[in-house]
Design goal:
heterotrimer, A: about 260 residues, alpha/beta, Rossmann fold, six-stranded mixed beta sheet, four-stranded antiparallel beta sheet, 10 helices, 10 strands, about 40% helix, globular, C: about 280 residues, mainly alpha, MetI-like fold, 11 helices, about 0% strand, elongated, disordered C terminus
Chain lengths: ~260, ~270, ~280
């Protein structure tokens, strides 16, 4: 599905990611973890074809369904994005136009990407909103971004992301800014979408517990290199690399897990 | 014995209408040397409560006392004089926005002392360095601008700024929710030490119950502007009574594996 | 502050500063550089073209154009600076005060500024000249008063956003006075905006001084100014078609330099590189 092989990223002369490799099979979920500066967000943005300004792929390949996309042009990306790979990020509000209703923004995507008529697009949009667990989807369709809570906006963004029926969903800190109960709901939603749509998932998070909720495998990054990867339970319960051990120990030092055994 | 911080019957209204209350008769007590966790989600009023205690939001009813002395009625020069004692300090949620981008870290940390007029610039600089050390930061960061340090460091700078003036009561709004585990632990350890060594009364506001385990002495749960549950931390975390608290706890993700699907059924 | 420092590194800002530097030098020592007395009439050479004696030719009464331009720089620039200075004083201080002194002052100052903004520029200047006498200082007083709302508005806009800034709240919690907050937190953020506005206002004021003197308001004829020269030269366009070129070019180049400088400060290279830097860090 997704195969990242020896990926190097650099900003000018400074190399930031030094040969990251991992593969994601159809329907699988991988968690990309590491502290800030580990290169997890850079890697994820390169996979989406939107590296930060000044950062370029200097080596290696990113294969989406067998095709190397790492040197794709903008136009080639337009074809792939939404239909093969889609993404949600930490701050949903900044990805929506504040002066258009959220429904209209999803309609637009459906009409351009899926070639639906105005009426069909609207019907499909309401359907999608409903399947995202948004109550009163018709009503939400006519609301502006400022009228919705952070959790609702993230659901709208997920609806837009999956509207093109992608094979891979990238979630970059998508639940970090949400309240715990809302985070739990959104994680449940993503878990449900994976099952129903056979979505592959690339989850980027600094919170190991979030990764533990959804992912089959974990890739641990440090300073632009993979230090460890493997099945989630193996990496989190019995980390082999000292850095991963430190991450897990840090995570366990405080938190509910100290008190409650579940 | 009077607690370092006592707030009772706090009401804050939205605008001037008593019908829309952000806080509706909330009480909060923080004795010296204790960490009180204030739990609440978006819209619960937790930030408003902290702002009201700090005097940044107007109280429509209720009182705030620091070491038994009422402070919520102070105005004008009297209020300024009280504030210059630095007894109540508030650490904002977003460290980037709460640091002036044009001031160096040391200037920001020393600001409270400069306002108060303590010592000469060199003395204040020394005090700022001490405060940076207290929160585990390299004093060499003092010459940097907020844009030149990491998010975790900025969070500790705002903590150092509050500590520099020697507070009795420290209010922290979501100090760890945006941090990765290593930075979170660091901040929590600093707070734990401050409570023991400096007898600070600390109010730790967070939406994440999990981060309070092992740190908080007491926990107060705020929901829609009211306290729904309150008690010793272990009791609230292990045997929550109110359904809302139960749901909060069930929503906290665990590193040990997927949480039973719980949140979905209760929304 | 950083915006100002960084802007100076841009080539366009450097060229603009160089041009303005020359204008300032002309203003300071132009009178002494002038080869002739700007008021001396050479009746043997009226409306003469450029020559070895008169590099830029002579005007309709035989005065040396180069000398008049050099001497005129001082009057024109000083007049514009006077107007802008008054505008700064009457605009920036009330602008800051309207944000930090409370509602009553805010309401009052807003109404006064709205009133001023409704007045048409040149007509107000003429009216003031009629009332206070036709002199350069009177005219510049009028222009300065009318520039005040611009400064008031931009200062208010820049400072108003900071009223709720968390670092301002943090300072309030330390017991800082409003004056201290303005000094340590607000002023640095407002300064670049004020500098930009000053540069554009200076450009505008130069044009207004030129138009007013062109209309014969402010400076009485024999005294040389750029606008006055432009006006008199235009009258003899058929005899000396290139005549207005020199004063017009001087006005255009100076105004363009001021605007270019303002642009350079607004286009802050720091923000774009900082964003890239932040993205890399994450």
């Amino acid at each position: 599905m997704l195969s990242v092989d020896d990926l190097h990223l650099a900003a000018g002369p400074r190399e930031l990611v030094h040969g990251v490799s991992f593969t994601l099979t159809p329907g699988e979920a991988i968690g990309l973890v590491g502290e800030s500066g580990s290169g997890k967000t850079l890697t994820c943005r390169a996979i989406l074809g939107v590296p930060p300004p000044g950062v370029t792929v200097t080596g290696g390949t990113i294969a989406l369904a067998g095709e190397d996309v790492s040197r794709y042009t903008r136009r080639q990306w337009d074809r792939v994005r939404g239909t093969r790979v889609a993404a949600v990020f930490q701050d949903p509000a900044s990805y929506l136009n504040p002066s258009l209703t959220v429904g209209r923004q999803l309609d637009e995507v459906l009409r351009v990407k899926n070639g639906l008529s105005r009426r069909d697009a609207r019907a499909r949009a309401v359907e999608l909103f409903a399947s995202m667990g948004l109550h009163r989807p018709e009503h939400v369709h006519g609301q502006y971004p400022y009228e919705l809570s952070g959790g609702m906006l993230q659901r709208v963004l997920i609806a837009i992301a999956v509207s093109g029926d992608p094979d891979l969903l990238v979630a970059d800190e998508a639940t970090t800014a949400l309240d715990v109960t809302v985070q739990a709901e959104v994680l449940d939603l993503i878990a449900g979408l994976r099952e129903r749509r056979r979505l592959s998932l690339l989850l980027v998070s600094h919170d190991l517990a979030v990764v533990a909720q959804l992912c089959d495998r974990v890739v641990v990054l440090r300073d632009g290199r993979v230090v460890e990867s493997g099945p989630t339970r193996q990496v989190l319960d019995d980390p082999a690399d000292p850095y991963t051990r430190a991450l897990v120990a840090d995570h366990r030092e405080y938190g509910l897990d100290r008190l409650v055994t579940r | 014995m009077t607690a370092a911080l006592e707030a009772d019957g706090v009401e804050v209204w939205l605008g001037r209408r008593a019908t829309s209350r952000i806080l509706d008769g909330v009480g909060l007590t923080a004795p010296a040397g204790q960490i009180v966790g204030l739990i609440g989600e978006t819209g619960s009023g937790k930030t408003t409560l902290a702002r009201a205690i700090a005097g940044l939001a107007p109280l429509h009813a209720g009182a705030v006392r620091v070491d038994g002395v009422p402070v919520s009625g102070l105005r004008g020069a009297e209020l300024r004089r009280f504030r210059r004692t630095g007894r109540v300090q508030y650490v904002f949620q977003d460290p980037l926005r709460s640091l002036d981008p044009d001031l160096t870290v040391a200037e920001s940390v020393a600001e409270g002392l400069a306002v108060r007029g303590d010592g000469r610039a060199a003395d204040r600089r020394t005090a700022a360095v001490a405060a940076l050390r207290l929160v585990g930061l390299d004093p060499a960061l003092g010459d940097r601008l907020p844009g030149q340090i990491s998010g975790g460091q900025r969070q500790r700078v705002t903590l150092a700024r509050a500590l520099a003036v020697g507070p009795r009561v420290l209010l922290l709004d979501e100090p760890v929710s945006a941090l990765d585990a290593a930075n979170r632990n660091h901040v929590l350890r600093v707070l734990d030490r401050l409570r023991r060594e400096r007898e600070l009364a600390i109010v730790l506001i967070t939406h994440d119950l999990g981060s309070l385990a092992g740190v908080a002495d007491r926990i107060v749960v705020l929901h829609h502007g009211r306290v729904v549950e309150e008690g010793p931390a272990t009791q609230v975390l292990l045997a929550p009574e109110h359904p809302y608290t139960q749901r909060l706890i069930a929503s906290v993700p665990s590193i040990d594996g997927p949480r039973p699907i719980y949140a979905r059924s209760t929304t | 502050m950083r915006a100002l420092r960084l802007a100076v590194r841009l080539p366009s800002a450097r060229v603009a500063l160089a041009v303005l530097g020359v204008v300032v030098v002309l203003m300071a020592v132009g009178e002494w550089l002038a080869p002739y007395d700007p008021l001396h009439q050479d009746t043997t050479a009226i409306l003469a073209g450029p020559s070895a004696e008169h590099w830029l030719g002579t005007d309709y009464v035989g005065r040396d154009v180069l000398s008049r331009l050099l001497a005129g720089s001082r009057l024109s620039v000083i007049a514009a600076a006077e107007a802008v200075g008054l505008g700064l004083l009457l605009g920036v201080l009330p602008g800051l005060a309207s944000v930090y002194l409370g509602r009553v002052f805010e309401w009052l100052s807003l109404r006064v500024m709205d009133g001023l903004m409704a007045l048409p520029f040149i007509i107000f200047a003429i009216a003031v000249a009629a009332l206070l006498g036709n002199g350069l200082h009177q005219a510049m007083f009028a222009v300065g008063v009318l520039l005040a709302p611009t400064f008031y508005r931009v200062t208010r806009a820049a400072a108003g956003g900071l009223r709720q800034a968390q670092y301002v709240e943090a300072a309030t919690l330390f017991g800082a006075t409003r004056w201290r907050i303005v000094r340590t937190h607000v002023w640095q953020k407002v300064l670049p905006t004020v500098v930009v506005t000053t540069a554009t206002a200076m450009a505008g004021a130069l044009l207004v001084v030129s138009s007013l003197t062109f209309l014969g308001i402010g400076v009485q004829p024999p005294a040389p100014t750029w606008g006055g020269m432009l006006a008199s030269d235009l009258g003899y366009l058929s005899q000396r078609p290139f005549g207005p070129l020199a004063p017009a070019l001087l006005i255009i180049v100076t105004v363009a330099a001021l605007n270019a400088l303002a642009d350079a400060i607004t286009v802050d290279p720091a923000t774009s590189t900082k964003e890239a830097h932040d993205a890399v860090r994450r």
